[in-house]
Design brief:
Helix 2 packs across helix 4, helix 11 packs parallel to helix 14 and helix 12 crosses helix 16. This protein is α/β, with parallel strands linked by helices and about 500 residues long. It starts with a strand and ends in a 5-residue tail after the last helix. Helices cover about 35% and strands about 15% of the residues. The strands form 6 sheets. Strands 1, 2, 3, 6, 12 and 13 form a 6-stranded mixed sheet that branches. Strands 16-17-15-14-20-21 form a 6-stranded mixed sheet, sandwiched between helices. It has 17 helices and 21 strands.
């Protein structure tokens, strides 16, 4: 199998055998960098992204055995949006989930629509990370995009149209746009009406496997007979690739952002407002929450604080008994998705004194992510049996025992490091195996396994410390993001200030 993983920061391609072991020497990794703008934009150039995918495939095939491949699987980042004409020529850059410029349009849609009902229908909130607000923003800003010939697609849809000769999207990608209904195969009519969007502006949804068109068979003869599986969203692929195939395990991924997900056989009857639900293929749905901040926050702290010896700082954080107890950190530097989906949130730190050190700030930031993941885990417990363990992936997280320990203690559950080197790529290879009819009836034998568990400290003192940190984070969120205390007639009381750890003048 060939697996192609299209991420927001790189393109990877790997070859796998029928037991889902990666083939030595048949791997490519091509990084790229989104264009970030001062007003909150996050874009990729589609032509550059396409070139990276083609180059990655070329490199893998040059290092793979000359025998043909049975199947190809693609994992692609969810929520990506590009406008194209009827000939599948891109008219815009690719807009990423982290592009927040459509927050005013999301706010207007919230006033017009019943967001809670829409959330239950589509599994998605009204937020700039999803298609509805972005489409409304782009159509307002660019008259060209209001024409009848404009189509709204995922970048992987454009690639599939070129390589396979068919213009369609997968159910997995469609379900994460915020426009597709979750429990029936249809785009959401009331939402299309609110956007003034015709059905023809959206792609057909088809989950049938495909084959390469003649032009590309000449370039890649090793793939001439390969079955191409429908594209899988990267979060769903990470769950499958890390062995989180059912409710017994939850997948924790910390990359640029962070997410906690569980695989279900059907959508929840009632979806908690803090969570999303997307399709992961026939009979599979992935439910969870995604933070806008994860590894990006760690990198910002490392660079901004100019921590010289990062490893030593992390060891110091790991040894600290209460390194974050005097600080309250809102880790919303890249805005907010789960749990609150605020439209224009920013980060904040309360409790700073002259004694605060760079190591204190680093520890408080990492602990703040752990607290938010614990909040998502608690909400997942409402719709799925509490999972016995959590499987972690993400190079930055796995390399830091101190952060692993923080998250484990915050969750109160065993945390294992997943053995899958590239969980999303491996998940794409699994779907390719299934599309080719080669997967075993029972997938347990393909489970990559996980390392020895990190067991949580369940002592009352640790539980109380994380509960207090969550309470302070909630209070600061109300003050700075929802404005509930600021809108009150009376100013914050000394009790409020003590709880927030904000020194009084």
């Amino acid at each position: 199998m060939l697996a192609i993983d299209i991420g927001t920061s790189s393109v990877r391609a790997l070859a796998y055998d029928a037991s889902l072991h990666s083939v030595p020497g048949a791997e490519a990794h091509l990084p790229h960098h989104p264009r970030l703008t001062a007003d909150g934009g996050a874009e990729l150039d589609y032509r550059s992204l396409r070139a990276s995918v083609l180059s990655a495939v070329d490199r893998v095939l040059s290092g793979a055995p000359r025998a043909g491949f049975a199947a190809v699987g693609i994992s692609s980042f969810w929520h990506g949006l590009v406008a194209a004409d009827r000939l599948d020529k891109p008219l815009t850059p690719v807009y990423l989930w982290s592009d927040g410029r459509a927050w005013r349009e999301a706010e207007a849609l919230r006033r017009r629509l019943d967001e809670r009902r829409l959330h239950q229908r589509t599994g998605c909130r009204l937020h700039p990370s999803y298609w509805p607000a972005k489409i409304a923003w782009l159509r307002r800003a660019d008259r060209r995009l209001r024409g009848r010939q404009v189509r709204w697609l995922s970048p992987a849809d454009l690639l599939s149209a070129e390589l396979l000769g068919r213009s369609a999207t997968s159910a997995s990608l469609a379900s994460a746009t915020g426009v597709r209904q979750l429990r029936r195969p249809a785009w959401d009519g009331p939402l299309l009406e609110a956007l003034g969007l015709r059905l023809e502006a959206l792609p057909e949804v088809a989950d049938a496997p495909g084959v390469l068109s003649a032009r590309w068979r000449k370039r890649w003869p090793q793939l001439a007979e390969a079955i191409w599986a429908p594209v899988l969203g990267d979060g769903a692929a990470a769950n499958l690739g890390s062995g989180c195939l059912d409710v017994s395990r939850r997948a924790l991924t910390v990359g640029t952002s962070a997410a906690l997900r569980v695989t279900l056989p059907s959508p929840p009857r009632t979806l908690p407002y803090s969570l999303w639900c997307y399709q992961a293929g026939p009979g599979r749905f992935v439910t969870g929450g995604a933070l806008s901040n994860g590894g990006n926050l760690f990198e910002w702290l490392r660079q901004t604080l100019a921590v010289g010896d990062v490893d030593a700082a992390l060891r110091s954080v790991a040894r600290s008994d209460d390194g974050f107890s005097e600080l309250t950190f809102l880790p919303l530097l890249a805005g907010e998705r789960s749990p609150g989906y605020a439209l224009h949130a920013t980060g904040a730190i309360a409790g700073l004194t002259q004694a605060t050190t760079a190591v204190d700030l680093l520890g408080a930031g990492l602990a703040a992510i752990a607290v938010q993941l614990a909040r998502l885990d608690r909400d997942l417990d409402r719709i799925a049996p509490s999972s016995a363990e959590v499987i972690a992936s993400g190079a930055g997280l796995l390399a830091d025992p101190g952060w692993m320990r923080m998250i484990c203690d915050a969750l109160g559950k065993p945390l294992r490091a997943g053995h899958a080197k590239e969980a999303s790529a491996r998940g794409a290879a699994l779907v390719a195996l299934e599309a080719a009819g080669l997967a075993p009836t029972r997938l347990a034998g393909l489970d990559p396994g996980a390392g020895r568990p990190v067991k949580p400290d369940r002592s009352p003192a640790v539980r109380e410390r994380y509960a207090a940190a969550m309470s302070r984070q909630d209070a600061l969120y109300r003050v700075l993001v929802t404005g509930r205390l600021l809108e009150a007639k009376a100013p914050p009381t000394p009790a409020h200030l003590r709880r927030l750890r904000v020194p009084r003048e």
